[in-house]
Hints:
15% strand; two-stranded antiparallel ribbon; disordered C terminus; 6-stranded mixed beta sheet; Rossmann fold; alpha/beta; 8 strands
Amino acid sequence: MGLKRQKQAKKTISFYKYNFSVREPFQILIDGTFCQAALKNKIQIKEQMPKYLMGEIQLCTTNCALKELETLGKELYGAKIILQRFQSRRCAHLKDPVPASECLLSMLGETNPHHYFVATQDHTVTAGVKKIPGVPLLYIILNTIVLDKPCQKSLDHVQAVQLGELVSPSQQQSIRSLKEEQGIAQKDGERRGKKRKRKQSHPNPLSCLKKKKKKGGPTPPKKMEQGENKKRIRNKKRKTEGGDNMSTHAITHT
């Protein structure tokens, strides 16, 4: 039975790794209800969790979850001691603590950008986690830690990505990193802030062509032939009385 449970956990982790970029060390967000169930069932969280998930883990909680255990009194003192051993992640409620269920869901946001696992026995948290795609859910049943199967929201999200309707978180991250490397994101912001300058328009080349002459119109005057108005010189020889040729005189004709 233990091998079957671990095999199913391996399959589920592969689903989150491939579709939601979940990587080691797995960050597991724990509340007081999970610590109380582990104490009651004698489960060593730090020892058993890495073996079950077959990878390196980081156990963490929030200040609100610790404050809630303090207000609940001595009955949950043991759970409080266990929870204090884990890393405390900063939440948005340092000055005004809220219930642990509300705080944990706020850490996930709408897309679980930090790839948290959530370990809880709280039904309110469980119901909220199943409305967010890409959040692995852990709980305790019959003295064992169980990794829940992917919820319907996660399955629908993966199907939408495969159909091209959505962009996966890994693709979004790679697009953002590429834009930062190329400086495209900054240029896009600058373009949005500045008005576009109109380019200087040039005249239509067709309008610059000479108009064609109409057929049947007046004929252009003929060009003067070369030398038409110029004076022509003709030499005429005169004979003298002795019959000798005289020097020629130029007679001009216009």
